Amino acid sequence: MKRLSKIYTALIMFFMYMPIIVLIIFSFNDGKTTVWKGFTLDWYRDLFNDKQIIGALWNTLLIAIIASIVATVIGTMAAIGINNFKGRKRIFIQNASNIEILSPDIVTGVSLMLMFTLAGVAFNFQMGFWTVLLAHITFCTPYVVLSVLPRLRHMDYSVYEAALDLGCNQWQAFYKVVVHELMPGIFTGFLMSFTYSLDDFVITYFTRGATFQTLSVQIYTMTHQRISPKINALSALMFVAVIILMLIINIKDRREEKAQEQRVRI
User: For position 19, what pLDDT does the model report?
Assistant: First the structure.
């Protein structure tokens, strides 16, 4: 059984990551087709010289960072507020916050587009950076709520009350106790928000207007022709960046776990 489980896991990992490995390999291909014609770094050089792709990448990262930070703050506050409700009110509000997660992206995108269009007619503005940012904050916030709420339910509130008894005011006790206890959930919500914002296409497509471009929209417009191998190079760099980020997070978590184990032993 152990051998079968290892084989099964290996097959799953193979089918999940083999396409990405092929993509990375062909980002170094000297030709524009899937036929290997030699090793080259020209596509990486062309990538950094392409102002449209670099501009779209910058817009994507800027939207993802700002939206995830704002959504993390709003989602954490919302989770604390939802947790303070009792009975049916909490169930109703929590289910309402989950509607955004369960709704198809096209429904959210079209509804936000209609709202921004009506607001643009009323207040004379056009869709662009700010409408995309508001849209991303809208669909990222429920993921933060979903990540923080379980931590709130398992938190020991007597520690917060003890901090108040020991001289902390409400803000100090909230920051040093509540935020500290919720930090794993907050960090998870931030990473989920950043990932979904970075990856989003449908909602961005409907709310971006005529001039604002993100990376996903830029790649979509390139699909009308043959996709340049520069996209392979860009995808390879993004994948490596994600791997490095995950390694840093895992190393940090392991060090914290070892530090906690040493404290318990002492």
Answer: 87
pLDDT, average across residues 142-163: 84
Cβ atoms of residues 87 and 242 within 8 Å: no
Residue 266: pLDDT band with limits 50, 70, 90: low
Q: Which two tokens stand for residue 33?
A: 């087709």
Q: What is the pTM of this model?
A: 0.83
The pLDDT of residue 264 is above 70: no
The per-residue pLDDT of the chain, averaged, comes to 84
193 and 144 Cβ atoms separated by less than 8 Å: yes
Which residues, other chains included, contact 148 with Cβ-Cβ below 8 Å and sequence gap of 6+?
75, 76, 79, 80, 182, 185, 186, 189
- The secondary structure of the chain, three-state, reads CHHHHHHHHHHHHHHHHHHHHHHHHHCCECCCCCCCCCECCHHHHHHHHCHHHHHHHHHHHHHHHHHHHHHHHHHHHHHHHHHHCCCHHHHHHHHHHHHHHHCCHHHHHHHHHHHHHHHHHHHCCCCCHHHHHHHHHHHHHHHHHHHHHHHHHCCCHHHHHHHHHCCCCHHHHHHHHHHHHHHHHHHHHHHHHHHHHHHCCHHHHHHCCCCCCCHHHHHHHHCCCCCCCHHHHHHHHHHHHHHHHHHHHHHHHHHHHHHHHHHHHC
Q: How far apart are CA 11 and CA 126, in angstroms?
A: 49
pLDDT tens across 63-88, in order? 999 999 999 999 999 998 888 888 78
